[in-house]
Amino acid sequence: MKILAIAFMIFWTANLVLAQKVTTDYDKNTDFSKYQKYQFLGWADNSDQVMNDLDKTRMREAFQSELAARNLKAMDSDGDVTISLYVVVNQKTSTSAYTTYHGRTGYGYRRGGWGWGNGYSTTTYSESDYLQGTLVMDVFDGESKELIWEGVATQAIKDPKKREKSIPKTVAKLMKKFPIAKAE
Question: Contact, 69 vs 183, CB < 8 A?
Answer without folding.
Answer: yes
